[in-house]
Amino acid sequence: ETGVTQSPTHLIKTRGQQVTLRCSSQSGHNTVSWYQQALGQGPQFIFQYYREEENGRGNFPPRFSGLQFPNYSSELNVNALELDDSALYLCASSFGRSNYGYTFGSGTRLTVV
Amino acid sequence: GNSVTQMEGPVTLSEEAFLTINCTYTATGYPSLFWYVQYPGEGLQLLLKATKADDKGSNKGFEATYRKETTSFHLEKGSVQVSDSAVYFCALSDNNDMRFGAGTRLTVKP
Q1: What is the structure's pLDDT at B2?
Q2: How far apart are the CA of A12 and the nearest CA of chain B, in angstroms?
Q3: Residue B8 in 3-state DSSP?
Q4: Does the beta carbon of A9 lie under 8 angstroms from any beta carbon of chain B?
Q5: What is the torsion angle, in degrees rounded to the nearest 10, for the CA atoms of residue B18, residue B24, residue B29 and residue B35?
Q6: What single-letter DSSP state applies at residue B42?
Q7: Nearest to residue A99, comparing CAs of B7, B50, B36, B105?
Q8: Are A36 and A44 contacting, i.e. CB atoms less than 8 angstroms apart?
Q9: Does residue A2 have a pLDDT over 90?
Q10: For residue B30, which of B6, B46, B51 has the smallest C-alpha distance?
């Protein structure tokens, strides 16, 4: 059983650029959630996808968008990057309801300069 | 809305000391509660969970009991090891998404 894999592991972008982060969910999982973790803080919920539809969203602006594909993998897109977007972006997968707990990937470290 | 508050760190202990990391929550319904652990450079790993009041989650010597009356889910371990050094996150889930506390950094010294 493979876990959650994220790519790339590290990324440096310039302010104003756009970025796409990718996530492959654990085998058998149909729900993907994305989190932003700033240095020294807890993960902040960005949004969740269930069966290719957005299933909840945190307090993030519309320039944060996502997709989920038929194989349940997912992308996080961020437009018009700002310096404050520098963080570790975590993807987590689960089967349906989150009450069973999530499996997290190792994250993508995004640095905006 | 739902939220989690956990004790601020960092926490520094000697090996074999007793550990308690406090966590309290605010929720409108009946959430599930979790503790996750994050080692340097890695994602979060599920440590233990409890899905209803009075449940006790346990794993690797860590324990936490879901206390509805005090809205708490404190993490405990009787004898910590150097390898337990990590950041610990308390979290709650209400079927829609999972909310995390700010994390508590634990350092265990030999």
Answers
A1: 85
A2: 17
A3: coil
A4: no
A5: -40
A6: S
A7: B50
A8: yes
A9: no
A10: B51
